[in-house]
Every structure is written in structure tokens, then in C-alpha cells.
Design a protein that fits this description.
Blueprint: H1 11-15, E1 22-24, E2 27-28, H2 33-43, H3 50-66, E3 74-77, H4 82-88, H5 92-104, E4 113-115, H6 127-134, E5 138-140, E6 147-155, H7 159-170, E7 175-183
Parallel strand pairs: 1-7, 2-7, 3-6, 6-7
Antiparallel strand pairs: 4-5
Helix pairs in contact: 3-5, 6-7
């Protein structure tokens, strides 16, 4: 199910304003999307994500063309732990970013932010535990451009994108957007 408007704010964002400027997350992570994204992410069945990525690209193109959002200078996929990447065979955030980058004519910089240490899997943690788990895990490798879009598959508590946006802001980014396929229901 798509969110009706990009002008809506979740309760968490109202209570704890995020370090990013805007987000574009068109769907809720619930049936049938959760199954599609799960098969893509955990089983490498990319065919399940292609229609979602294609539709997402079309939505972003319209939003950028209308001036509702600034076109980012680069797309930054959420970095993945190297061991987890070897297990899965790919980083789904980077895969999504590369498709969006090609469709929208925006460069992808998968090396701008890197993980500097391994952390527990986020899946079973609450918001506070996720934020604590991610403290000091990301490092920006060079100055960030002014406008950046962080790309991920699913935003759950927002902890990962909050931490990524914070390190990118410290590295010079001013307009930080979050682009993800789905958001867990509030």
C-alpha cells in the first residue's frame, strides 16, 4: 500500500526530528511487499524487486521533475557488512541505487560511506538499541556533495538512515534525502 503523500510525518520524526531533509518511501512493508522484498534480499531473487524499483523510479522522476524535491548530486547506498554481503552475494541497497541512478541519470557513490566495524544484526533490536548498535559504525571517506540521497530497501526504525545522515551532514552534505522502497508500519 502506498503512502498517500510525501507531506506526512511519522510520530517518531515529529518527536525526534531527523538529520535528513526529506524521505521518499512509497510503500508499507507489509503483505505482499514484505514477501517480495524478503525473497529479493535474502534469497537473491531479484525479479521480485524489479517491478518495485521500476515503479519507484517513475515516482521519483515525477517528484524531481515537478520540483517537489531537489535532484541529488549523488546516490549513496546504505553500506552492508562485508560478511553479510558475501553471504547474500550482493548489497540490495547498492543494487537499488544503481538501477535508480541509471534511470534518473544520477551517479552512485558506494564508496563515500563505509562500515568501520561489525555490529549485531538490526532485525531484532528496538529503536534505542539500533541507534546504540550503530554508534561509530559509519565513516565518510571524503567530502560529501551538497545534495545526497541515501538509498536503502526498507526503513524500519529509521536508526540506520539517521546515523548515515548524521555522518554525511558532518562531511558537508546540506540536503539529505532518504529513498527506500518500504517503511515498516508505525
Amino acid at each position: 500500500m502506498a503512502f498517500p503523500s510525501s507531506e506526512l510525518f511519522c510520530g517518531d520524526c515529529l518527536k525526534f526530528p531527523p538529520p535528513f531533509t526529506t524521505s521518499c518511501i512509497p510503500w508499507r512493508y507489509q503483505y505482499p511487499l514484505d514477501g517480495m522484498i524478503g525473497r529479493y534480499k535474502y534469497n537473491g531473487q531479484r525479479k521480485f524487486a524489479r517491478p518495485l524499483i521500476s515503479d519507484f523510479s517513475d515516482r521519483l522522476e515525477k517528484e524531481l521533475d515537478s520540483g517537489a524535491s531537489q535532484r541529488p548530486d549523488i546516490l549513496v547506498p546504505a553500506p552492508m557488512d562485508s560478511r553479510r554481503r558475501r553471504q547474500r552475494g550482493f548489497n540490495q541497497a547498492q543494487d537499488i541505487a544503481e538501477h535508480l541512478g541509471r534511470d534518473l541519470g544520477i551517479p552512485v557513490d558506494a564508496g563515500l560511506v563505509r562500515r568501520v566495524r561489525r555490529v549485531r544484526a538490526q532485525r531484532e533490536l528496538n529503536r534505542e538499541a539500533r541507534l546504540a548498535n550503530l554508534r561509530g559504525v559509519f565513516e565518510v571517506t571524503s567530502a560529501a556533495p551538497e545534495r545526497v540521497a541515501i538509498v536503502d530497501d526498507v526503513v524500519t526504525t529509521g536508526a540506520t538512515v539517521r546515523v548515515l545522515a548524521s555522518v554525511l551532514r558532518e562531511a558537508g552534505a546540506k540536503d539529505i534525502q532518504v529513498w527506500a522502497l518500504a517503511r515498516t508500519p508505525a
